[in-house]
Amino acid sequence: MIENNDLARIITGCKGGDDKCFAQIIDMYASRCYGYFCRLTGNNDISDELLSELFVKLVEKIGSYKGGSFESWLFKIASNIFHDHLRSKQRRKKLLESQVAEFESGTTEQKKSDGELTDKLQIQLGRLDEGTRELIMLRFYSQLSFKEIAQMRSEPIGTTLAKTHRALNKLREYMEG
Amino acid sequence: MDDRNKENLRELFEKFFDAERAESCVEDIQKAEQILHKHPAPEPDDMLIANIKAEIAMRLQVSRAHRLRRIIYEVVGAAAVILFVAAVSLQLFEKDPPSGIVNYASIIPTAIWESDDIAVDDEELAVFTVQIEQIEDEVLALQSGEDTGNGDSTLTELEMELIEINSDFWKG
After folding, report:
1. What is the pLDDT of residues A72-88, one digit of tens each?
2. Residue of B34, B43, B56, B61 for testing the chain A interface, max A β-carbons within 10 Å
3. Minimal Cα distance from B64: which residue of A?
4. What domains appear along chain A, each with residue ranges and CATH number?
5. Could you tell me the pTM of the whole model?
């Protein structure tokens, strides 16, 4: 576990444009951020892209980090990137649907795209709505406290607690069922 | 991820529920999180991480070059402004009119200079010229000893005439 002083030193290096410090940040957070994207998108290839985007954004935005929880700041960017991805996916889906409607074929079978995750947890996560899934993943991968998550989501801590509890119960129910 | 947030979950839930319900909530959360631990997400590929690091290093290099170029442009721009201001200032100082021109202009009576009546001006100039010629003749006569009168009074008269001409001339 990295000490706060070390993290502060690394962040200062990043702000000074030191690529070695950025490399250290990547080593520290890549795994957790990748897990967050994988479980939310259910796709390795997309997660690759989002992870690259996240760290490029980090380089661009590091100057705006003014202290506080770095994880909270980083995962806020990750969450924004994921939502941007969802929006562009929605646009693509609409476009695709309109094209498919024109060339309607008899088959309803959908081919799984490359890089799709198919483990049990991913399948059960797929049964949860997007908001619930995101809350669980944010809690698990960001390692933020409920207080920090509540602040990040701009909602009362009681709401965050209740939603997370309900979401995790539901996931457990699906996994055990 | 075992050393995750050090918040006291029980205490937190007890703010909203009674002790028994809070205990149950904490257990629910811990059990669900154990499931997540048992099903880890894939790790990012080493090649992906290496590519990201390389891209970041490249971007930082480009950014440094941009910053350096901007500094150079700013310095060159500032130097150009300073040189321009210095050149303009020097030219302004050098453009002090030569004193001779001012003197020549001041010789000409204002009334003549500003007058639109050329005929009158010419007439006055002719009178002045005749008077100057007369004085020149008298001076020459004095110098050659042709003057028949008292030398002192002639000189006094000459001086009086000169003063008169001078005052007339400057009155315009």
Report:
1. 999 999 999 999 999 98
2. B56
3. A17
4. 1-104 (1.10.1740.10), 118-177 (1.10.10.10)
5. 0.67
